[in-house]
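step: validate -> pass
step: tokenize input -> pass
step: predict -> running
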Amino acid sequence: MKQNFRTRTKKLLILALLLSLVTFGAAGLDTVIGEAGLMLNGMREHVRSQETNLGNLVTDVIRERMGADVAIYNGGGIRASADMGEITLEDAMDILAFQNDVVTLRLTGAQLLEALEYAVSSYPQASGKFLQVSGIRFYFNPERAAGNRITKVLVGGNELVRNRNYTVATNEFLAAGGDDYSMLAAAEQIEMGDVHDQAMFIQYIQQNSPLFPTVEGRIVVER
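step: predict -> pass
step: emit ->
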């Protein structure tokens, strides 16, 4: 299955590239694809240590596109911010620069909790493994030992159930165990998106501007 998964990945990347050439033609990277009603915060020290409005936007895009219960995205995969105002093709490409495919996984509540514990294990140090999330709200206490910091998790407004299965959309990097997310690599892969995350993001901006993503309390630090 792994070999087939990577073969499909290459084919989709080629298709996405061809589609982008047709769509944007000679207009180039300065093509305006949408508008932000406020600054989209992708600052390195922020996306790697706290909830940001851009992290919320990115995860909302892939969760909605994949029809998943939850979406998670490593803060290290968000590479730039965008100022309030016009968003160009180059802006969007800089934000999600790696063109990762999007994968839906089946995780138990226990596996999802394990991933969240790992995400905050280095806090308050900024770390690329820190997760931006959608469809979920979680609370953690950084005074507790790493691996035992999460105090509460809500999925779709309901308490997480450890033995229940959830669909989780993420990028291929994490799905393959990147940043040492071994629990994601061990999970069942259900579906792969029709285009990579950058293309999903560009299409969403085109179809939903102006954008007004906010910080909503999806990640709560308890003291």
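step: describe -> The first strand starts at residue 32 and ends at 36.
step: cleanup -> pass
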